[in-house]
Design goal:
single chain, about 450 residues, alpha+beta, 2 domains, five-stranded antiparallel β-sheet, four-stranded mixed β-sheet, 14 helices, 9 strands, about 10% strand, UgpAE/MalFG_permease, cell membrane, ABC transporter permease subunit, Ig-like_fold
Amino acid sequence: MTATATKVAAPPAAAPATRQRRARRRGRIVALLFVFPALLLLGALVVYPVLFSVGRSLFDATGTRFVGGENYTEMFRDPATLKAVRNTAIWVVVAPALLTGLGLILAVLVEKIRWATAFKLLLFMPMAVSFLAAGIIFRLAYDEDPDKGVLNAAVVGVHDAFQGSSSYPTARARDGKGLSAGADGSYRTGTTVSPGDTVSLGLVGVAPKDLPEGARPARTAAAREADPDELRGVVYLDFTRGGGGEPGRVDPEESGLPRMTVEAVRDGKTVASTTTAADGSFRFADLADGTYTVVLPGSNFAPPYDGVSWLGPALVTPAIIGAYLWIWTGFAMVLIGAGLSTLPRDTLEAARMDGANEWQVFRRITVPLLAPVLTVVFVTLVINVMKVFDLVYIIAPGPVQEDATVLATQMWLVSFGGGNNQGLGSALGVLLLLLVIPAMVFNVRRFRGSQR
């Protein structure tokens, strides 16, 4: 009886285990149902494009002929692609390092000011601006015309404040009227003159509205006779409003050209120099007897300083990196500031109590303790700069697009921007993916390590 009872009681003991297995199976099915839409999107938007790009990179431009690794070989023979690799390397080395350094410095300094939150908000605001809008903003800021580009306007203003600029960049001598042009852009009298002579130097090419303020008529100065020991003359605008007048002669309504540099040259050497008055008059006193040539130096006619060619071949990549720094500095500062707020204050205070100054505390304690955060910020920015496209495509003008190109823009240009070779473009995309994967794996491992 006992044995029989035992055998009858055995099945109910196994029932809870069966129910648990069924519950776990139902839980997995429910979990899969919830995860399935995400997996479907991940497969459609990530996995399939990656696999398609890898496959497409093995075919020619038409997509019908299998070429194997020929696109990858061609990729490293193309000078434009090599330049894109070089520029991408510059981005990877320069931009993340500068951003991490700026973010660290700003995060430490912001801690010491009263309106820290407002300052962080101000620096973080560019993150809210799209790369398209930021590219347009900096394209205008970098414009070479000082009347449009704010950076060149500032550069020209500083330059002119210290060196000044020519007042008559468009002026030129009238042909056959006593002045000959020099190779250095200067003008000189065709015949020599001596003390006691008066010379009239007429120029054209200056619009009356461009005359300096305070310019006066030159007729009186031209009629004034020189003393025996001086050389006198007048520089004037040989043009009468409304027409009329005689070329090569100072007419009543013609204006003098003030602030014009005039030199007296003898035997190839400048022996005297002066500047014209408001009526264009000038005089050289106490000159030794002999003959002289009167010269208007080329500096009088030098074109105005237009500033820096920010978007020229030499500076276009640093200029675009500058725009990138403006956008992402707030991001680096906020992340590093979050890490800074978790540092043990007692350690910092103990170092100060032991006599360490702020620089020593920053270098020997703050930076080492922030090393994990700095590494994550740096690697995240490395991943981001490898994919940069918008700023390069928008800011760089067409003629220097190739000088500024990076892998992402080169991939687009080869595939859709005129190259129409999607096989080579897919190979560039695969290369970019292979370069990004190590940084992504490193970042994921860092996150997992920090969670443990």
